[in-house]
């Protein structure tokens, strides 16, 4: 499968993607029915990468390097003003992107689920980023330590089909600026542990930077979220 941000949905490879080979700069998804080992070929990339984020909505991205990339080092550029770049946090403040990156995680005892990352892009992981404006470019700079770096895929790059997660109950977390309730929805094969409900003194009516959109839903996975059809942008 390949996610198409233009119509907020998945295309099936190769039936309606129109290509018979995997393309550079595109993200693909697959589901396995048993443990498999992935054979990854190619050479180590050592140059910064520019990824076009043309549409408003979710985009699948990855770390093009075999070592960590700090999210704080990422840059956002408007195609209408290519000489000015925004740091990741500046792009969030200017309502160009949402602040949370999600990745899919297989984890024994918890169930396969989305998890969020606000520090680094890890090698061999794919991430979801949601844009709030169209015609952006994401710049992923090459880490300074990438020169002459060679590495093999990590030992845990052998995917596993996880069993059912145990039922858990959580105590509401009391914050000094409000309250937060954490929800966990568990199915036989997956879980959703990123859903939150709460208050904050800086929140306002309607969507704001305290809110997070639900990542694209894959088939046969657990998904918990709150509909806000009253908001102008119902894709939130």
Which regions have little confidence, pLDDT < 50, spanning 5+ residues? Answer: 158-166
Average of per-residue pLDDT values: 79
Q: Tell me roughly what share of residues is in helical segments.
A: under 10%
C-alpha geometry = globular
Helix/strand structural class? mainly beta
Main sheet properties = 4 strands, antiparallel
| End-to-end CA span | 23 Å
User: Helical region count?
Assistant: 1
How many DSSP E strands? Answer: 17
Output the strand order for the largest sheet: 4-13-7-8
Any overview of this molecule?
- There is one protein chain.
- By secondary structure, the protein is mainly beta.
- The protein has one helix and 17 strands.
- It is globular and about 50 Å long.
How would you summarize this macromolecular structure in one to three sentences?
With 236 residues, this protein is an all-beta fold. It has one helix at 88-93, and strands spanning 2-4, 9-11, 36-37, 49-53, 57-62, 69-70, 75-78, 81-87, 101-105, 113-117, 120-121, 126-131, 136-140, 158-159, 173-175, 178-186, 191-198.
Give short descriptive properties of this protein:
236 residues, mainly beta, four-stranded antiparallel β-sheet, 1 helix
Furnish the topology, listing elements before pairings:
Layout: E1 2-4, E2 9-11, E3 36-37, E4 49-53, E5 57-62, E6 69-70, E7 75-78, E8 81-87, H1 88-93, E9 101-105, E10 113-117, E11 120-121, E12 126-131, E13 136-140, E14 158-159, E15 173-175, E16 178-186, E17 191-198
Antiparallel strand pairs: 1-2, 3-14, 4-13, 5-12, 6-11, 7-8, 7-13, 9-10, 15-16, 16-17
